[in-house]
Amino acid sequence: MDTPTLKQILIEELENYTGEGLNVHAYLTRNDVEQLYTVVDIAVVRGKRLVGIALFARIVDRHIIIELDHNDKMLVDALKARGVPSEQVVLAYAGEGVAR
């Protein structure tokens, strides 16, 4: 699969992880030049404001590298369901090799 198609699918799937929930709002942040994409959660728990990265993925050499995924519905499964070949998805958080 070519890089523009990977990017389109990745962004569409990451958008599914955004929005409002109970005491939390999730935002997609993008750096299209460096092809870095994150989903940032902002929550209020027991009156305290918490901010954290729920997902971090990037595109390198026609591969989607998932650096971090703290979700019950894993991004890798969503990408595979959209037809992204397994060999083009690297699970860096699980210790799979990363080119750079």
Architecture blueprint of SSEs:
Elements: H1 3-15, E1 19-21, E2 24-31, E3 36-45, E4 48-60, E5 63-69, H2 75-81, E6 89-91
Parallel strand pairs: 5-6
Antiparallel strand pairs: 1-2, 2-3, 3-4, 4-5
Structure write-up:
The model has no long low-confidence stretch (mean pLDDT 95). The chain has a six-stranded mixed β-sheet, with helices on one face. By secondary structure, the chain is of the alpha+beta class. It has helices at 3-15, 75-81; strands at 19-21, 24-31, 36-45, 48-60, 63-69, 89-91. Strand 5, helix 2 and strand 6 form a beta-alpha-beta unit. The protein has two helices and six strands. The protein has one domain (3-94): XisI-like (TATA-Binding Protein, 2-Layer Sandwich). It is elongated, with a radius of gyration of 14 Å.
Spatial shape: elongated
- CATH fold field value: TATA-Binding Protein
Number of strands: 6
Quaternary structure: single chain
Radius of gyration: 14 Å
Q: How many DSSP helices?
A: 2
Q: How far is the N terminus from the C terminus? A: 20 Å
